[in-house]
Every structure is written in structure tokens, then in C-alpha cells.
Amino acid sequence: MMEPVITLPTKSMKHTKGCKYQLVETMEVFIPDLIRYDNIVCDFIWLKEGRLSLLKGFAWDGASGPTIDTKSSMRASAIHDALYKLIRQGYLPAKTKNLADVILRYVCIQDGMWEWRAGAWFLAVGKFADAAADPKNKKKIMEAP
Question: What is the pTM for the complete model shown?
């Protein structure tokens, strides 16, 4: 068998773990409460004049904890993960975590989730998800090889 002709980069590849979904087109949502936080550009996330844009290629891990991903949770979990990432990276203040949790519940209901289930999610992230928004818990960057 013939060896392929390939030139590898001189640097190692850097990556993180934990994502199972990736947008194939940009998604935008208007969040009036975020207007005061303007001109934020972070990887695949933009926030300008209250418009949160999750760009094509944005990756997230869906619902966390003892639950399952459903059609009614996909947009909400993407928006929620993006807002938590902005908090974790210091672009948004920690006090916006509650707003992110409220938005999670709202979008889940708008997308057809039963209100009691969305309410349970809201209570769960309020009680157990502080670490996910904490700047001390930025995703670890790994290298290969």
C-alpha cells in the first residue's frame, strides 16, 4: 500500500471535549435585557445591541444532567450554553446567570416543552448549575499528539 502524501502542521492540535451538536447555520435571538452588554465577540458567539448570534459552527452539549435532549430543548440549550460561556469567560457578569436560566425556561416552553418540565429544568439549573457558569471552570484545552 502506498503512503499518502501529507504535510502535518508543526504545532500540535488543540481541542476541548464535551460538545455533541453543532449549528449548520447561524441562529439569532433578540434579548432586550442584554442590550447594555454590547459588542461581544467570543468564538462562535456575538452579542450586539441585544441580538445574540450563535454562528454557523457553534457547538454545544445539549441538555445536561439526568434528562434527555428533545426538539423542545434544543434551541433553549444552545442559547443557555452560549450565555453560560459568555459568563464563564467574563464577557457577561455572574448576575446574568439567572437571566440565562429564565431564558432557558421561556424558550423551552415556546418550543413546546410542558411547563412543568421547563419549570423543573429552571429549578435544576438554578440549584445545580452555578459551576457551569463559573470562570474557574473554563473548558480545559487539550493537545494531540
Answer: 0.85
